[in-house]
Amino acid sequence: MKTIPVITVDGPSGVGKGTTASLLSNHLGWHLLDSGAIYRALALKVLNTDAETSDIDTLVELAKNLELRFESIIGEPTLVYLDGECVNHDLRQESCGNIASIVAVIPEVRAALLQRQKDFRVEPGLVADGRDMGTVVFTDAQIKIYLTASAKERAKRRYKQLKNKGVDGNIRALEKEIGARDARDSNRKVSPLVPADDAIVIDTSDLSINEVFQLCIEMIDKAGLKANLER
Ligand code: C5P
Question: Is 220 in the pocket of ligand 1 (CB under 6 A)?
Answer without folding.
Answer: no
